[in-house]
Amino acid sequence: MSASFSGITIPLFSLMWLLAVSLFAQSVAPPGVVVRTFDADKVGAPPPGFVMAAGRDAAVDGWNVQREGDGRVLVHSGRPSPPDGFAVAIYSGTRYQDVELSVRLKATGGGRSAGLVWKYQDPLNYYVVQLDLARQELAMYRVSSGNRIRVEREDDLELDPEAWHSLKVRQEGGEIRVYLGGIRVFSERDRLPRSDASVGIWASGDTSVMFDDFRVEVD
């Protein structure tokens, strides 16, 4: 069997092989890199490869994939929640020590506070960086045995609350670096025990927010 395009005849087997190679090349990230765009995930359901959790009486079931423009994004739909309630989508593929992770986010309602978690052991032990577009601030917290300690804070950001924003965290040895829009904002010493841990996405319980281009990289 064969197919003809613009007068050129290609054997059907060869055509299928070329299409398969093309799709494979588009979907494979470089070694040591995981990229989740959510474009291949089922709309209306949580994305595979993530485990959802919540803390301080927030809802755990507010995550699903939705269409956005020509693509798809991961959405956290805000629910009534205590002021310090939060939800996380933890990437369950691997646990890390040194790691770089990033995400793009766009808050659409509620508290408009979202970000990244790393060195995540459970809802009581992790680091989090939160971009709060209502307060126009970026803050980093260390959570140990449920006690939340603010490590650093940058306010008066003057960001567009309706726009997409990018966050990146690099954990390397005993140093943590946090970036907003490609610009380094914080550089702090790691005070949690060095151990393999998970990474993921964070949202305050009442925040509605879209996430895209979640990326995890190890050297």
Structure description:
By secondary structure, the protein is mostly beta strands. It folds into two domains: 1-30; 32-217, Sandwich (Jelly Rolls), CATH 2.60.120. The protein is 7% helix and 57% strand. It has one helix and 17 strands. β14 (175-180) and β15 (183-189) form a beta hairpin.
SSE blueprint:
Elements: E1 2-5, E2 8-11, H1 12-27, E3 33-36, E4 50-55, E5 63-68, E6 71-76, E7 86-96, E8 99-109, E9 113-122, E10 125-132, E11 137-144, E12 147-154, E13 165-172, E14 175-180, E15 183-189, E16 197-204, E17 208-217
Antiparallel strand pairs: 1-2, 3-17, 4-7, 5-6, 6-17, 7-16, 8-13, 8-17, 9-10, 9-16, 10-11, 11-12, 13-14, 14-15
Uncertain spans: 1-28
Mean pLDDT: 87
CATH second-level architecture of the largest domain? Sandwich
* Major sheet size, sense and barrel closure: 8 strands, antiparallel
CATH class of the largest domain: Mainly Beta
The number of distinct helices, counting runs of at least 4 residues, comes to 1
Distance between the termini: 46 Å
Strand-residue proportion: over 45%
